[in-house]
Amino acid sequence: MLPPVANRFVAGKTAAEAIDHARRQAKLGIDPMINLLGSHHGDRATAVADAEEYCLLVEDLAAADLDGQTAISVKPTQLGLECDETLFRDLLADVIEAAGVHDVFVWLDMEEHTTVDATLDAYEEFARTSDARLGVCLQADLERTLDDLERLADVPGTLRLVKGGAYDRPTGIAYTTDPQVDRAYRRLLERAFETVEGTVAVASHDPAMIECAIDRADGTDLELQFLMGVRPRAQRTLAAEWDVRQFVPYGTRWKRWAINRAKRNVGFTARAVAETVVPLRNGETFEEELGVSVPVSESGLESTGE
C-alpha cells in the first residue's frame, strides 16, 4: 500500500496493481502504457531481471483482456544500455518478441542526450525488421530533434513527442528556456503532422500544445498521452473524442518517481493530502467535491527520467 501522495502518481508496487488501475482507466476509454520503475542499471543481473519482468507483464496484460490497446514503456538504461549496447539490444529484442506474441505495444523511452543515438538506432532497426508494434520518444528541447524526426518519418513505428526530459543539458545542444522549448515543440508538432505517415503521439499536459496538436492534426492519427495522476479530468474529457493513453508506473522503486511528480504538480499533492481528511464520494475528485480549483503544472510531459 502506497502513501496517499504517492498513489496519485504510482499504481502500486506490483504488476497486478498496475493492471487493476489500467482496467479502471480502460472503462473510461483511456489506454494504459505500463512502466516498471527503474533505470540506469549498472549491472547485468538487474537489467536481465527487469527484462524478464516485462516479459511476464505482457503475459499478464494479455490474460487481463483489457479494453483498448495495451502498451508497455521501457527505458534503454533499464535494459542494460549503461552496461553494454549489445546487452541492451538483446534484452530489448526479448521484450519486443514477448510483446508481439501477446499483441502488446512497446514504447521505447528517451533518456539523457548521450543515449539518443543508441536508442534511435535500436528503434529503427527493430521497427524496420520486425512485425512488432513499436514507438519511440523524441524530445523537443534537443536541437537535433527535427533532424531525427526527418530520419524517422517513414519508419513503420510511432513517434511520441515530448517537450523534454528531466535531465541536465550541456550548453549548445538544447533549448533551455521555456519560450524556446515551447517554440521548438510547436515546430516539432507541425513538422510531424506534415511528414509522419502513421500515428503521432503528443505527450504534453500543456493545454496550448494539446490545442495546437488537435488543430494541426488534419487527418493524421493523433494520440494524446498523459502521466497518471496529472490532469485526470482533462484525460477523461479528451478520451470522449480522441485516443488517450496514460503512463502507469509501478514497482518497488517508487519513491523517487513519486517525489518528483509531487514537486512538479503541487496542486495534486495538496489534493492528495486533503483527501485523507475529506473523503470523496462516488469517485469524485477533490475539486468536484469541494467546488474549488487547485492549479496544476501545465508543463509538457517529460520523458520519464527518474
What does this 3D model show about the protein?
The protein is an alpha/beta fold and 306 residues long. It has a single domain (6-290), classed as TIM Barrel, CATH 3.20.20.220. Helix content is 45%, strand content 14%. Strands 1-2-3-4-5-6-7-8 form an 8-stranded parallel beta barrel, surrounded by 8 helices. α6 runs parallel beside α7 (178-195) and α7 packs parallel to α8. The longest helix has 21 residues, at 44-64. It is globular, with a radius of gyration of 18 Å. Pfam families: Pro_dh (PF01619). It comes from Natronobacterium gregoryi (strain ATCC 43098 / DSM 3393 / CCM 3738 / CIP 104747 / IAM 13177 / JCM 8860 / NBRC 102187 / NCIMB 2189 / SP2). Keywords: Oxidoreductase.
Concise overview:
By secondary structure, the chain is α/β, with parallel strands linked by helices. The chain has helices at 6-9, 15-26, 44-64, 85-101, 116-129, 145-152, 178-195, 207-217, 232-239, 255-264, 266-275, 286-290, and strands spanning 30-36, 71-74, 105-108, 134-139, 158-162, 200-203, 222-227, 243-250. Helices cover 45% and strands 14% of the residues.
